[in-house]
Amino acid sequence: MSGTAARPRPATPPALMLALTFATGVVDAVGYLHLDQVFAGNMTGNVAILGMAATGGTGLPVLGPSLALALFLTGAAVAGRLLRTAAAGWSRRCTVLLAGVGLALAAAAFGLTAGGAGSPAARAMTASGLALAMGAQAATARHLAVKDVTTVVVTSTLTGLAADSRLGAARGQGALRRSAAVALLAAGAVAGAALCRVHTGLAVAVAACVALAVSALGHAAARSAGVRPRGAARPRTAAASPAP
Length: 244
Hints:
By secondary structure, the chain is mostly helical. Helices cover about 65% and strands about 0% of the residues.
């Protein structure tokens, strides 16, 4: 048979997804503390807030969490559509999507730096922009499928950590990675809250830098592992000389 089997794509380095988890902690700290208690990445929190707000008299926001939920789903749907026919593992589409996440965060950081949080409507729109980026990030992370690292929530990660611990099933599987995901989300929230004391735009800018760095490093890692970008020319082979 002519041709060779396609080389499988290497696994995505878990450190890259853990870095995005840190960035999510930063972004959620900005959203909750300075954008009217809106989570940009943790949609479970927004759903819970909307459920409690539905009873009335709670003083909880409705517009911000509603828009953030809708835009998160939009970002995830767009990313899912783009990745629908992509091969498993890191591809050029993953690079483009995560670069887009970084640029969207950078635009939000610029807006916060230039104009501040602004009116309630402006804050809701800023939070929605952050949620759009987080939705695209979450869908890309889902495609890359680094076990126990969704980059936006750690509920399932904590469940696995406890269930497989010595007090649970005593399997001891993935404890280090799960613990790192939880710790980095918390560290991101700490960093985000601290940076917001300087300026909210600075906090979002840090998250943007992380996303852009992950995009570049992931692309470089895939190339160094020998993954040929889709659409690149195949190497030429020497023509066989005719038999005498």
